[in-house]
Design a protein that fits this description.
330 residues; mainly alpha; A middle domain of Talin 1; two-stranded antiparallel sheet
């Protein structure tokens, strides 16, 4: 049993490594191609980079749904959304307090909350249908169009990789193709290893997906954010992390359910969904300027942005650790 468990852990670890590197090269290759075709950095940041950073979650969830592991497909997204806020943002802010723009509070956060509510409502009946998946994808397109229009007045802080003009265009196309293949292979290794570990260790696929799988697919964001915090760089913004959560629901679940409806037991995920929404609301409180908490929390008027303090990051991180402990104990 120990040998089988170790081999499955090796598959899972190999899958995570392959996903991390493939996702990175997918973004770099896609950005280079977009630049060659004279697409603006702003549009690249809001579309190509956003899709690229969500690619690991998308491929893993799609592969899990198609191979008969719906708990992994859903748990991956819910766990990633929790990890993005409580782990990635919490740990980053614990190192370096992070400024929050007015647009993030007034626009990005409400859309993230709506996406969470849409996911919750879609899951209540124990299935995410193809129609619901298509609706989520339509909402994603609306979000992208709205973001591009809004960005003309309030340019977002979106980090677009600058990789120069080292290679011919066809090289970047090959890079994208190989990266996509790497994502497919990595997701298969990750799903196979995770489901096998769950079976051997007697742990539910839900717990494995919300913890280990979600951590693996969130690893690029965590690494980039923590490194940026140690370097005292502010180009990793709260808006980027919130945008990743919006894409996880509308793109990952939307596309996955659009390809194949997802069936599951809602009771298994109800606590996780409530915790995800609670973390969203807690983030909103932490984002508000202290003087505005009581005056403008409900109306969202006259908010000029604020700073998420180090104490808030520590609270979020501790909550994440507590959540992980509870998951493995239940």
């Amino acid at each position: 049993m120990e040998l089988t468990l170790l081999s499955n852990v090796g598959l899972l670890a190999a899958g995570i490594v392959l996903l991390v590197f493939s996702g990175d090269y997918l973004v770099k290759g896609s950005v280079a191609i977009a630049h060659r075709f004279k697409i603006s950095s702003l549009v690249i940041g809001l579309t190509v980079v956003a899709f690229g950073t969500s690619a690991p979650e998308l491929i893993v969830s799609l592969d899990a749904a198609l191979t008969g592991h719906p708990e992994i497909a859903l748990g991956n997204v819910i766990g990633s959304n929790v990890a993005n806020i409580a782990l990635v943002l919490g740990l980053t802010v614990a190192i370096l307090p992070m400024p929050v723009s007015e647009q993030t509070i007034k626009r990005s956060w409400p859309i993230m909350l709506i996406s969470g509510a849409v996911l919750f409502i879609s899951m209540i009946d124990g299935k995410v249908t193809r129609g619901e998946g298509i609706l989520m994808f339509i909402m994603l397109l609306m979000f992208i169009v709205s973001s591009i229009k809004s960005s003309k007045r309030f340019p977002p802080k979106v980090k677009v990789p600058q990789i120069g003009n080292k290679h011919r265009t066809w090289v970047y196309f090959v890079m994208v193709i190989l990266a996509a293949a790497g994502l497919a292979g990595g997701s298969r290794l990750l799903v196979t290893g995770a489901s096998a570990i769950a079976a051997v260790a007697g742990i539910s696929e839900r717990v494995i997906s919300i913890t280990i799988v979600a951590f693996g697919t969130s690893l690029p964001e965590l690494t980039a954010s923590v490194v940026a915090a140690f370097k005292k760089e502010t180009d990793i913004s709260v808006g980027n992390i919130i945008g990743s959560n919006i894409f996880n629901v509308f793109a990952v679940i939307g596309i996955t359910a659009g390809v194949k409806p997802i069936f599951f037991s809602f009771s298994e995920f109800s606590i996780d969904l409530w915790f995800m929404l609670a973390v969203y609301i807690l983030l909103f409180i932490f984002m508000l300027p202290f003087k505005s908490i009581f005056k403008t929390a409900l109306s969202l008027k006259n908010i000029q942005g604020g700073i998420i303090m180090r104490a808030a990051g520590i609270i979020l991180f501790v909550l994440y650790l507590g959540y992980m402990v509870v998951l493995f104990k239940t």
